Amino acid sequence: MKTTLFAVLFTIIATASAFSQKHLGVFDAVKLNDSTTLAMCLNSGLKANTANTDGNTLLMEASKNGSYAAAKLLLAHGAKVNAQNEMGNTALMEATLRGDTQMAALLLQANANTSIINSVGETALSIATGFEKTDIATLFTEKMQHSKEAIVKAR
Question: Which residues form the ANK repeats (predicted)?
Fold first, then answer.
C-alpha cells in the first residue's frame, strides 16, 4: 500500500515538474519579449519571417504583444515589415488595433506601408480612424505628408 501511494505521488510530482519545465516555443519567446531566446534561435538558423498556422509572422506576434525588443531584433534580421497573414493583416495593423503608438512608430521607421488592404478592405489608416486611435492616425498622416514632401523635393 505504501509503495503504491509513493509511486502515485512520485508520478504526480514528476508530471508537475516536467510540465513546469516545459520548453517554450519561439512564438512564446516573442510574446514574452524574450530577445535572448529569440536571438539564439535566429542565430541558429530560424528564419525571421517564420509564420504560425494562421500566417502570423514572428513580427506580427511581437506587434500584437508590445514586444519591442523582439520586434527590433526581428527587423534587424530581415523580417518583412509588410508581410500579411491569412486575413491580410500586417504587423502595423496589429499595432494599430492595440493602439500601440510606439510599435506603430517603430514599424513606420522600418518602412511599414499604411496603404496595404486586408481581406475586409481595411488599411492601417482606416483601422486607426475607425477605432479612434487618433495618435496613430496622426502618426500615419504625418508620415504620408513627409513622403509627399520628399517626392516634391526630389523633382
Answer: 54-86, 87-119
